[in-house]
Amino acid sequence: MRPSILLTLITSLTLISGCQDTTKTDNCSYYVQQDLDNENFDTAISKLNTQACQDSYSNNEYLVDLATAYLGKSGYSIPDMINVLLENSDGDDGFDEFTTQIGAIKNDDSFYTLKTTLQYFDEFLGDSCVNIDDKTTTETGICLIIGMVDITRAALAVDYLSDGEEWENGDSEAMQRSTCALQYTVAYTVDNSTAPVFACDDSVSVDSSESVTFSNSSGINKIYENLTVTSPTGTEYFLQAITADTDTGTNTSNIVFTQNYCTTDFTSCDDVSESTCYVCPSENEDDLSVNEFVLDALNDGFSNIEQIFIEDGTNDSDIQQAINDFKTEINADGCDTDSEEPCFTMDDIISYLNNNN
After folding, report:
1. Backbone dihedral region of 91: left (phi > 0), alpha (psi from -120 to 50 degrees) or beta?
2. How many domains are contained in the chain?
3. Same domain, 66 and 127
């Protein structure tokens, strides 16, 4: 990697903090920087959510510190992400090893805090990275970070689908069941519906005959299809959320991230085989989509990072080479560089996960 890009990545966020007068202890940014340096991320977030603190920054630059605090809260750092990426850039199984190591770092907050990180960076930039020409040093650094966060989100989704198991050696039925659930959502989106029982192959199938509604006293009310995916050695459960487009009359289907088990009022339970106990969705108003993490985040992450190195003229960098290796691993045919379409489709991702399985 050329020193200019590495220095950009390391210093881009500190440039903004350097523009604030952090020598004055009555300036909120001074205390926020202290919190970030000491990894007191919740304290920094609490300060940054007050209007008085936000007003102490210029040009909405508090958003960068807010994004940085959420990134720290996720359990990841940019050096962690880059180190894991570069360590696994060689060999035929680099991306699946990357997902395994990234999954080992996660905490209970990682999924939501990484998405929140991106939301605040995006709000600061005011546009997507690919649409910003003549980027400033700070914009370049932020776009590199956004790209790395997106690739990390995709790795977390693959780790979730594998249920934390080793899956690259062809012995994980957990991954077979997960990819079958993804196949079901693709078929549902294309056909606008599917049969109650959907066969992925002779040994793995999805039963989607049950609809389930989760609600609580805070006004949360969510409706899903409860997917029961069966293989010769076990059963896995997923929740499918269906989003209707009233203008086109079509539906979009996604698997949502779940954690542990609960009844339909979000009370914890232990035995998912009982008729009232299900895999548990988030009590947040908005769910996180496995489909979006594993596909859109991967495509966006690769595109953002590639554009940075192309603009800098260093597309032979170690990071870019690692991404090229990951692309070839996922799809040996590569991507159409002349097309404006994303590199991968969900069918590409499913095929890759199945072929490695």
Report:
1. left
2. 2
3. yes
pLDDT tens digits, one per residue of 269-325: 988 877 899 999 999 989 999 999 999 999 999 998 888 888 776 655 788 888 888
- Coil, strand, or helix at residue 211? strand
| Range scoring the smallest mean pLDDT among 71-75, 177-181, 304-308 | 304-308
3-class DSSP state of 237: strand
Question: Could you tell me if 132 and 187 lie in one domain?
Answer: no
Which pLDDT does position 1 carry in this prediction? 41
- Residues 182-237 have pLDDT tens digits of 999 988 877 766 677 888 877 899 998 899 999 999 999 999 999 999 999 899 99
Please, is 266 exposed, middle or buried when counting C-beta atoms within 10 Å of its C-beta (0-12, 13-18, 19+)? middle
Q: Report the distance separating Cα 125 and Cα 120, nearest Å.
A: 9
- Residues 297 and 278 occupy one common structural domain: no
Angle between helical axes of 41-48 and 28-37 (0-180°, round to 10): 160
Strands (DSSP E) along the chain, which ranges?
197-199, 205-215, 221-231, 234-245, 250-255, 261-262, 278-279
For residue 350, tell me if it sits in a domain.
Answer: no
- Mind giving me the DSSP string for 64-114? HHHHHHHHHHTT--HHHHHHHHHHTSSSTTHHHHHHHHHHHH--TTHHHHH
With contact defined as beta carbons under 8 Å apart, do 207 and 257 qualify?
no
The parent domain of residue 230 ranges over 173-288
First-to-last CA distance in the chain? Answer: 33
357: pLDDT confidence band, cut at 50, 70 and 90?
very low
